[in-house]
Design brief:
By secondary structure, the chain is an alpha/beta fold. It has a single domain (2-288), classed as UDP-N-acetylmuramoyl-L-alanine:D-glutamate ligase. It is 38% helix and 25% strand. It contains 10 helices and 13 strands. The protein has helices spanning 23-32, 48-60, 103-110, 125-137, 157-166, 174-183, 191-202, 241-254, 259-274, 285-288, and strands at 2-6, 10-14, 17-21, 37-45, 63-69, 74-80, 86-90, 114-118, 143-147, 169-173, 206-210, 216-220, 225-228. Helix 1 (23-32) packs across helix 8 (241-254). The two termini are 18 Å apart.
């Protein structure tokens, strides 16, 4: 089965040096560790940083449809606070702001069983239209996951609402839920009520809510709910942990796992990723069994 992370491909410029980044590639990499055909779909520049991204994907065994465009390869300055939580400065006018719709993209979309896309790569009109065309070209019954990624000022109510209408699964964290609820003029009810309203208003199949150290929920359209606490681990950094959660959850669903079992796998994987530096560590065998 083909599973795609669609959107930004970039370098995270961390205090200890640059590491490959971008939520879509992180998602695809972790999904691929479960035996699925994970692809990153994006654009990089005709520059050395672009060459290095493709070389890194090759080294990690991650497949990709990456277009070369006449814009600089994306970079993000990342600073970690005292708790290891990343703070981002995302450079504008990057290659991934200009992802073209190509025959290779169309062919990939036609063979995709699940895709994960976010709000960040939709900050520009060009990439937003490519993402929309990709979703429209996917087979009937395929799974569309919208992982909201509210960074800096790079989102609008219009993009968020359209994306929620187009997706089957919405993934959102507790801080993003507050922002989105205010945007939509939802009353200040409890967390579960607001999640249920999002499911009903946008016709979602399910909603994943992550709350950092306070645990995570998976709400189903049928009224079901799965809650799991967050394991206590020694945190190296949290870069890519959320993407590993989504990748392992979706991969588990596609392989036939129940929602509670997929949720447990996602929690365990993301906890492990927090103990490792960088966003794409190799997972130990016991997490893949």
């Amino acid at each position: 089965m083909t599973i795609v992370g669609l959107g930004e491909a970039l370098w995270d410029m961390l205090p200890e040096g640059k590491k490959i980044g971008g939520a879509p590639a992180n998602f695809a990499f972790h999904a691929s560790q479960f035996g699925l055909d994970g692809y990153a779909a994006s654009a990089v520049g005709n520059d050395a940083l672009g060459d290095e991204i493709l070389e890194t994907f090759d080294q990690k065994g991650l497949r990709y449809v990456i277009e070369r465009v006449d814009y600089p390869t994306g970079t993000v300055q990342v600073a970690l606070d005292a708790k290891g939580v990343p703070q981002y400065d995302i450079r504008e006018g990057a290659a991934w702001d200009n992802i073209p719709w190509t025959p290779a993209m169309a062919a990939l979309a036609a063979d995709t069983q699940a895709v994960c896309f976010g709000s960040l790569a939709q900050r520009s009109e060009g990439s937003r239209q490519t993402i929309r065309r990709f979703l429209e070209a996917m087979p009937e019954g395929s799974l569309k996951v919208f992982d909201i990624n509210l960074r800096q000022h790079f989102y609008t109510p219009e993009v968020l609402e359209e994306s929620m209408r187009l997706c089957d699964i919405l993934k959102i964290n507790d801080e993003e839920l507050v922002i989105v609820s205010r945007m939509l003029d939802y009353p200040a009810t409890d967390v579960q009520d607001r999640c249920r309203r999002l499911i009903n208003d946008y016709g979602l199949r399910m909603l994943i809510l992550t709350c950092g150290t306070c645990g995570s929920y998976v709400f189903g359209a049928d009224g079901s709910v799965s809650f799991l606490p967050t394991p206590k681990v020694d945190v190296a950094d949290t870069v890519g942990a959320g993407d590993s959660f989504t990748g392992s959850f979706v991969a588990s669903l596609l392989k036939g796992a129940s929602i509670p079992d997929a949720h447990r796998r996602a929690v365990d994987v993301s906890a492990y990723v927090c103990t490792q530096p960088g966003a794409m560590p190799q997972l130990p065998s016991h997490l893949l069994a």
